[in-house]
Amino acid sequence: MARVPEVGSVRRGRPVIAACVAGLLLPAPAALAVPAAQSSPAAQSSPAARASPAARAAPAGLPGPVPGCPPQHGTAAPAGAPWPQRTLRFSSVWDRTRGAGVTVAVVDSGVDANPQFGNRVIPGPDLVAAKPGVPAGADCVGHGTAMASIIAAAPVPGISFTGVAPAARILSVRISSSDTFATGVTPQAIRDAVALGASVINLSLATTDDVPALRSAVEFALRRDVVVVAAAGNDLEQSGVGPFYPAAYPGVLSVGAVGPGGALAGFSDQRTPVSVTAPGVNVTSAYPGTFPDAYDPVQNGTSFAAAFVSGVAALVRSAHPRLTAAQVVERIEATARGTAGPGTGHGLVDPVRAVTAVLPAEFSSAGQAGQAGQAGRSGSGRNVRAKHAVAVASSGPAARTVILAVIAGSFGLVIVVVTAVLAVSAARRRRPPGAHRAGGAGPL
């Protein structure tokens, strides 16, 4: 099976290979163009290919770091809260939702143990060949552990770092065990994640090739009402420039990266249609190591920005369980902080507004499940919705005030509907004995 290299970067002063810079690079079209169902006879005959997603899952429990896996282990977390946590303020909605009941699939390099995960990481299918001395599901790159922690790390005493949705579950689907990534497994990983109940899929990976099997797998997830979040991709000499896939596929929540000042990161691709941006420069995350030396405070890339938005999607799905995946995407886009130029889409994601905003569009479409349309796209990002359609609420009296304002704005409609109902009721009372509704429907 063909494999592609990752991009080298510098971490803690020493050269290493790090997925955080260029995401997980996918293969050329020839290597991944055949869907799993039409793969080679040798692949179809293998026990792993014939097994169900549950059968391919790794054993229960999470591995810890072993010598050489990854080559370097983590360090202590920063003393103070990292800048993304301070900027996004997602902890301010934890009294309303922490992402409980939502499973986020991390299609990546595996997830190592960390106390901040508790028992909320599900070891899913391991699509990587076993290596002697390496535990099943082990993260030998550090990338998957980082993504999972940004999405769902819970607070623990003495650690400044926390994830966005600390009650969400993580489904780890491993597609890599080294600094290169197998070319034929990502579409299967996406389908496995759907089959195992993920309602959000984080894809911190990118390729410049529009691969048919990858496109098909993403479309499959979207049809199953799954929110698909993908990194917009990094413009680097080794990985080329966009548009990058799967972020450029219709319906995907594509994420660019910004730095502490809010400006688009120099590496964040501007050719990929972007939905929103999120922190992707000098990001702190968990990293394989012996706790408490199990963090990396200086990670960069659109990979990390995507993980923040996957966490926000988990908060929204938990707080608004009746919304479709398309409506979740629309809510996150509509409540972002506004475009800041090419490559920024609707602007910086706003977890507080995404959870608490009252959207008239959602009120008008209540009870019309499945009819939410996909947001349009433009050359520099998806079209930005009019901000006057968003009323921001918070928990408590303020939320009730905003909701009442929305209802009051539709008061004339309410009067018309009530009048019509009263008229129908009066007509029913005047019906002669024995009159029935057509079609045998139940009582009004």
Largest sheet features: 7 strands, parallel
Number of domains: 2
- Compute the number of helices: 15
CATH class of the largest domain: Alpha Beta
Name given to the CATH homologous superfamily of the largest domain = Peptidase S8/S53 domain
Strands, count: 17
Rg computed from alpha carbons, rounded to a whole number of angstroms: 23 Å
Portion in strands: 15-25%
For the largest beta sheet, what order do the strands appear in spatially? Answer: 6-7-5-9-11-12-13
Backbone structural class:
alpha/beta
Q: End-to-end span in angstroms?
A: 63 Å
> What name does CATH use for the topology of the largest domain?
Rossmann fold
Mass-distribution shape = globular
Low-confidence stretches: 1-23, 25-50, 54-59, 369-389, 392-444
CATH architecture of the largest domain: 3-Layer(aba) Sandwich
Q: What is the residue-averaged pLDDT? A: 76
Helix content: 25-40%
Would you kindly provide a written description of the structure presented here, covering whatever features stand out?
The chain is α/β, with parallel strands linked by helices and 444 residues long. It folds into two domains: 13-389, Rossmann fold (3-Layer(aba) Sandwich), CATH 3.40.50; 397-429. It is 29% helix and 17% strand. It has helices spanning 19-22, 29-32, 41-45, 47-50, 53-56, 83-88, 143-152, 186-195, 212-223, 302-319, 325-334, 351-356, 360-364, 397-409, 411-429, and strands spanning 3-5, 8-11, 14-17, 24-25, 103-108, 121-126, 169-174, 180-182, 200-203, 205-206, 227-231, 253-258, 276-279, 283-290, 293-299, 377-378, 381-382. A seven-stranded parallel sheet has the order 6-7-5-9-11-12-13, with helices on both faces. The chain has a two-stranded antiparallel ribbon with strand order 1-8. Strand 14 (283-290) and strand 15 form a beta hairpin. Helix 7 (143-152) runs parallel beside helix 10 and helix 8 (186-195) packs parallel to helix 9. The longest helix is centred in the C-terminal third of the chain and has 19 residues, at 411-429. It is globular and about 55 Å long. The termini are far apart. The model is unreliable at 1-23, 25-50, 54-59, 369-389 and 392-444 (pLDDT under 50).
